[in-house]
Write a structure and sequence with these properties.
Elements lengths: L2 H19 L7 E6 L4 E7 L5 E4 L3 E2 L2 E6 L13 E5 L6 E2 L11 E4 L5 E2 L10 E4 L15 H11 L2 E4 L8 E2 L15
Parallel strand pairs: 2-5, 3-6, 5-7, 7-9, 8-10
Antiparallel strand pairs: 1-2, 4-5, 10-11, 11-12
Length: 186
């Protein structure tokens, strides 16, 4: 074999491995049509879904724009998922998206325009907002959800963390703020 053929085979193998590693877990996700059948939403995930989950940006030729239409969380009680990667096509996250999971962190893409109640699980200790303009409810759910809502509205994009068993969120790189008076803490 000449060098070009060998290099082409190596590159195709590497691309195949990279694509396989990022393949969504479609057999465990259920989708429904939304927005007058012009988009798709992750409707519900099987409770036996596990490991890292990658949501596709497109399902059956339609953009995936929502997590969980209605009040049923897209990943309600899916205790064995270790991470969820949301595509930049997601615009709305419906209530209780991660309720009952053991997820400790999530990244919300800049494309998200609206988050409805119950986003967080009690286990979450890190939330990264890539955008600044998402509409958030007064309480994002989970431990300290009201505090995180207020901090995001005031601080915008960035990574917010909280210590386990505490209800106070802090923006990384920012000063801790008193939750009742709004003044910086020492």
């Amino acid at each position: 074999m000449n060098k070009k053929v060998v290099m082409s085979l190596v590159l195709l193998t590497l691309v195949g491995v990279m694509v396989f590693a990022q393949t969504p877990t479609l057999d465990k996700l259920q989708f429904t049509l939304v927005d007058k059948n012009t988009a798709a939403a992750v409707r519900y995930s099987s409770n036996d879904i596990s490991g890292a989950v990658v949501i596709p940006a497109v399902y059956n030729g339609l953009p995936v724009t929502q997590l969980g239409p209605g009040g049923t969380g897209a990943f309600l009680n899916c205790k064995n998922i270790t991470s969820v990667v949301l595509p930049n096509s997601i615009i709305t996250i419906k209530p209780n998206a991660f309720l009952g999971t053991n997820l400790t962190s999530i990244t919300i893409p800049a494309s998200v325009q609206k988050i409805e109640g119950g986003l967080l699980s009690d286990a979450m200790t890190s939330v990264t907002f890539q955008g600044t303009g998402a509409e958030v409810p007064n309480n994002l759910g989970g431990r300290g959800g009201a505090d995180l809502s207020n901090k995001y509205r005031a601080g915008g994009a960035g990574t917010y963390t909280r210590r386990a068993n505490e209800n106070i969120w802090m923006k990384q790189g920012g000063a801790a703020v008193c939750p009742t008076c709004g003044q910086p803490l020492p």
